[in-house]
């Protein structure tokens, strides 16, 4: 015996919900694509806006009064703006052990020297993301005929920073072999 299809209220409600869900799915996919595009434009190496920095002479902050100075191995002052350079994590000047403090001073000097070698670019455009302390978060690179030189890669290759990135924890600088 063949039964006729049921076209009762419950069946009609399910069909209406399915149609609404299909329409909502389209909007959700469109919103996800838009959110992804916004995030990619903010990602440092993904093609955000780069601003050329002609520079000037960077000094170590505290040595002399200078509009451009290096705070530590991964933070600089550009006039009144504090900029946290991303892609690497340098030791702290007030570190837990003498070896960390020495390495931090070497990283600070190396960053000053890298910045003073010539023009470079910072990413983030006119309105970069900021960290919890209000510092601008920017990556730095230098371009020349040989290609691009990323500050983060230079600092890590010199043994003055970790590639793990800022805020990810990891073992302290004093716990590493060769540091005490």
Task: Please describe the structure with a list of short key phrases separated by commas or semicolons.
3 helices, 5-stranded mixed beta sheet, 4-stranded antiparallel beta sheet, alpha+beta, 180 residues, 2 domains, OB fold (Dihydrolipoamide Acetyltransferase, E2P)
List the helices and strands and how they pair.
Elements: H1 9-42, E1 50-53, E2 59-60, E3 68-72, E4 75-78, E5 81-85, H2 98-116, E6 120-123, E7 136-138, E8 140-144, E9 147-150, H3 151-157
Briefly, what is this?
With 180 residues, the chain is an alpha+beta fold. The chain has helices at residues 9-42, 98-116, 151-157; strands spanning 50-53, 59-60, 68-72, 75-78, 81-85, 120-123, 136-138, 140-144, 147-150.
Helical/strand content category: alpha+beta
In what range is the share of β-strand residues? 15-25%
* Largest sheet strand order: 2-3-4-5-7
Sheet bearing the most strands, described?
Answer: 5 strands, mixed
Kindly, what is the distance between the CA atoms of the first and last residues, rounded to a whole number of angstroms? 87 Å
Order of helices and strands: HEEEEEHEEEEH
Total strand count, please? 9
């Amino acid at each position: 015996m063949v039964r006729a299809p049921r076209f009762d209220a419950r069946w009609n409600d399910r069909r209406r919900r399915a149609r609404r869900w299909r329409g909502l799915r389209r909007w959700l996919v469109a919103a996800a694509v838009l959110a992804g595009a916004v995030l990619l434009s903010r990602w440092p190496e993904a093609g955000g806006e780069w601003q050329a920095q002609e520079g000037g002479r960077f000094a170590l902050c505290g040595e002399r009064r200078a509009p451009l100075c290096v705070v530590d191995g991964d933070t600089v002052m550009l006039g009144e703006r504090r900029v946290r350079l991303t892609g690497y994590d340098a030791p702290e000047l007030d570190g837990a052990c003498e070896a960390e403090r020495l390495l931090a001073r070497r990283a600070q000097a190396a960053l000053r020297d890298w910045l003073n070698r010539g023009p470079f670019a910072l990413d983030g455009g006119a309105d970069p993301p900021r960290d919890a302390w209000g510092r601008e978060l920017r990556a730095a690179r230098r371009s020349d005929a040989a290609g691009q030189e990323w500050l983060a890669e230079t600092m890590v290759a010199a043994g003055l920073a970790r590639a793990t990135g800022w805020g990810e924890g990891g073992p302290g600088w004093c716990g590493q072999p060769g540091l005490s």
